Amino acid sequence: MNEQAYSSYARVVHPLKIKIMKTITLVGLLLLTYVSGFGQDVPSSDIQMKTALLAAPTELKDGAKIYGYNGAGEFITLREGTNGLICLSDDPNSKGFNVACYQKDLDPFMARGRELKKEGKTSQEIFDIRETETKAGKINIPKGSTLYVYNAEDGDVTWASGEVVNGYLRYVVYVPFETSESTGLPTKPEFAGQPWIMNPGTHRAHIMLSPPRE
User: Fold this and answer.
1) Going by C-beta distance under 8 Å and a sequence separation of 6 or more, which residues neighbour residue 148?
2) Fewer CB in a 10 Å sphere around the end CB: N or C, the chain?
């Protein structure tokens, strides 16, 4: 190749080579971010179980089944249960600290919600689908079944020890398709700690019990 031809070749290839290298670098960084997003900051199974049980009544802690996450961020069973309670550890990919426990017969309802969320459905879509499926008898929500929810700010959790400060525990009692009229409960609280009914007349009708914060 003569000097003139090489010069023309270099003008074309060199910028192209730089562009390719930049693209490769960008793709590499994106892949690294994607991979590190799974398993990043996933606590040990012991810590997950310890914190999940913060939402459980004391007398039910020992026999509760516990769901959590493995190092790849996959939803798994951390411990089988021997009583009627199921607890969920904190989702490492969600903001804030949030654990919950619920009566075992609610599991199909909860599992369906997780499945639909994984499919990319919005909160409203999940509500509508489960409403239809509950009315069709595909999902059963036992009346009087209970959900316990315990949450805190990210900064209030010490993951090395599983200690949580300033946490808040609230309670939900499911009463599917009940209304304010059928329960005598208001549709919004008038003071902290007052029971009230949320989503009245729907499959997800439930009594909210939110104690005053300390």
Assistant:
1) 55, 56, 57, 100, 101, 102, 169, 170, 171, 172
2) C
Q: What is the pLDDT of residue 11?
A: 58
Evaluate whether residue 85 is within a structural domain: yes
- Distance CA(66)–CA(78), nearest Å, equals 5
Instruction: Quickly count: other Cβ atoms within 10 Å of residue 97's Cβ.
Output: 20
> Is residue 119 located within the same domain as residue 150?
yes
**What residue ranges in the chain does DSSP mark as E strands?**
65-69, 75-79, 85-88, 97-103, 146-152, 157-158, 163-164, 168-174, 196-198, 206-209
Do residues 32 and 55 share a domain?
no
pTM for the structure as a whole: 0.79
The Cα–Cα gap between 192 and 36 comes to 41
Per DSSP (E only), the strands in 26-84 are 65-69, 75-79
Shared domain check, 54 and 33? no
Contact by Cβ (8 Å): 85, 102: yes
Give me the domain span that covers residue 118.
45-209
CA-based nearest residue to 169, from 104, 99, 109, 110: 99
Q: Which of 20-24, 41-45, 126-130 has the lowest mean pLDDT?
A: 20-24
Cα separation values, 137 from 97, 109, 143, 172, Å: 34, 12, 14, 22
